[in-house]
Amino acid sequence: MSGNSVSLDDAPLNGFHLRVAAYTTGGMFCDGYILGIVGYALTQLTPVMHLNAVWNGLIGASALIGIFFGSLVFGWVTDRLGRQVVYMADLVFFILGSVLQFFVANAVELFILRLIMGFAVGADYALGPALLAEFVPRKQRGPILASLNAVWTVGYVVSMIIGYGLQGAGPGAWRWMLASSAVPAIIVLLLRLGTPESPRWLIRKGRVDEARRIVKKYIGENVDIHDLLQEKPVSSNYKKLFSKRWRSRTAFSGLFWLCQVVPYFAIFTFVPQILKSLNMTDPFVGSLVLNIFLLIGAVVGVVIMNKLSRRFFTIWSFVVMGASLLILGIWPSVVGLVITCFAVFAFVVSAAGNLETVYPAELFPTDVRASGVGVSAAISRVGAAAGTFALPVAISAFGLGPTMLIGAAILFIGMFISMKWAPETRTLSLAHASLEAEQATSFDSQMSS
């Protein structure tokens, strides 16, 4: 490498990096919108389609079930066929699924459609963090990857506002709510046209000249890929994620994410109904307050992502979230305390949720990065779908307090998992961050000395 050359990890941030970040976070906006809009649609769907608690939970969880399969399948597809193909295809599914939801005639049709849409969302979950991590410099990697979750939260909150605004559109308002997700998906699809393939992926596939041209054109003439050429071309292999050297990282990546999202999706999918059960005169006001805390937490999480170690942030966020649901579970009938605990939970879960798009992308090497992120997302969706399905049933059977205590227990389990397995990756290059556990630990010690 010549004296004035820089590596891909240390290249200066430029307009291309910011455009790729914007286009990729746009997909996450669509993901959040698609998953969030169903909460308000269900408030109208339930009486119109005469849904019982089981069907209410199934439709709420349908997209999450789809994400499980989509993350697994498209993580592997993305590592095998490239980032660019999936980058475009998932948005086509968003658009078609959104439009078709307008015409559903029964709960079964809606369940199937949202299952398919969840499949596409799962592709975006596996692809987005992997693609961005492979393009952006290490100094900005944490905040930019964290912005994926932050913009996801914006999409989730915007869907709530749109859902509330469309409530007065008549008995078929829920159709317009669900179909409205086509609008942001069309915009993002048009913006993504022409995005190049990941040079790291191309190098791992032996397409070095193509990778070099992309780097020179989009990243900079003085950016050298010599350090990346030391990695031998290799095919993606799912088995690697579960080998002795990698299985603890795979387990941590999926389980910390699972423990975060189980109470998150369960609570916020049904928060309008939860607040209504507390006899609030206007549940929308309570929902709006909680969603404002979600937005603030998402922004704060981006700001502090590079100021705290990944390990510290993960462990202590579980402590605070678990404590808030524990208090809520002990005193579930004090409305002011309930709102306060929900607000604290919303703020912290949103800030810590940014780790879901940062940590997994840093833990795995290029040949299985999208697969690793996909497996992690799939593991998390098992919990998210189960929690979303079970919450209305649990509240109906046991009440709000015991249900929140179960959520607190899950969060404390996440804390213990993180204490045992969470590595530190904040200051490392992407190559060093994704080394085997023993090597990464040794490198971390050198970095801190």
TrEMBL record:
Cited InterPro entries: MFS_dom (IPR020846), MFS_sugar_transport-like (IPR005828), MFS_Sugar_Transporters (IPR050360), MFS_trans_sf (IPR036259), Sugar/inositol_transpt (IPR003663), Sugar_transporter_CS (IPR005829)
Subcellular location(s) of the protein: Cell membrane
Keyword Magnesium belongs to the record: no
Family under the similarity heading: Belongs to the major facilitator superfamily. Sugar transporter (TC 2.A.1.1) family.
GO molecular function: carbohydrate:proton symporter activity
Boundaries of every Major facilitator superfamily (MFS) profile domain copy: 20-426
Gene Ontology cellular-component terms listed: plasma membrane
Organism (species): Alicyclobacillus ferrooxydans
Protein topology in the membrane: Multi-pass membrane protein
Tagged with keyword Ligase: no
Residue ranges crossing the lipid bilayer per the database entry: 20-42, 54-78, 85-105, 144-167, 173-195, 250-271, 283-305, 337-359, 397-417
Protein name, entry field: MFS transporter
Keywords associated with the record: Membrane, Transmembrane, Transmembrane helix, Transport
